[in-house]
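Q: Focus on the chain.
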Amino acid sequence: MSFVKTKEELQEIQRILSEGRCTIEALSIEFETTFEFLRAVLPPCFDLPETPTAIASVSRWQSELCGEFDCGIISLKCRYKELEGTTMLVLIVSGDMPVTIGREMWGEAKKTGIAQVYLDGHEAYGFCERNGARLIEIEAEFGENLGPSSSEAYDFEIKAVPHSSGYGLQHEPILNCMKNQENLRVKRVGAGTLTLSGTALDPLHTIPVVSVGTAYYTEGESSWTVPRLEVLPDGEAYLPFIYGQKFDDFRLFRKPARFQKTLRPA
């Protein structure tokens, strides 16, 4: 163990990162939002899906690349060129390495928080919290296990780095077309309820929920790889989305008295 890795250690580290293997237990529920909301929050490289569908989920993971962590996610269905998939509008994760590697390598909008999933017979409950606020709550009732299944899906994440000067981006954004290969041993389908709450830093309460669809409880494993990535031109067009979705609003943090605009009386 050292602060400087050997050639052999680097080979093993990079193999682990390239395969992105995890186990997962997840409670998720689909919901219908609006085309107007999707168009407002989807970056310009994405086209709208056929139906304005989103997915809320809370989950627990154990990964080969960054250990154990919890997730609370809001995913939006979208299209990129000929590919159909999702992009994660909200991604709240426990642990520093899960947040760090996801942001720096893939460009995910990861922020630190907690999530829990509870299953009691046919009923399940899950929630996600950040900064003391419970943002996502899912309750659902499920049927029996449908047995093993496998699937592939694309998730699109925009990797963008703020410029060292504080103005603009360091380089043009990169779109990572991530392929998620899932192999499930448990899949249960049911119906449930979804509650989204919000704060100034995490405005999930502004997401329109028109109706709630199918709920899922799943256990299994997944791998996350990047078979395709593309440079996106016109980085300035992505700045409103980068600072609106991948970071907290820096204006809202409590500032030292000397930096506050309102002067105190003498």
In short: The two ends are 57 Å apart (CA to CA). The longest helix spans residues 7-19. The helical segments are 7-19, 35-41, 96-106, 239-245. The chain has a mean pLDDT of 96.
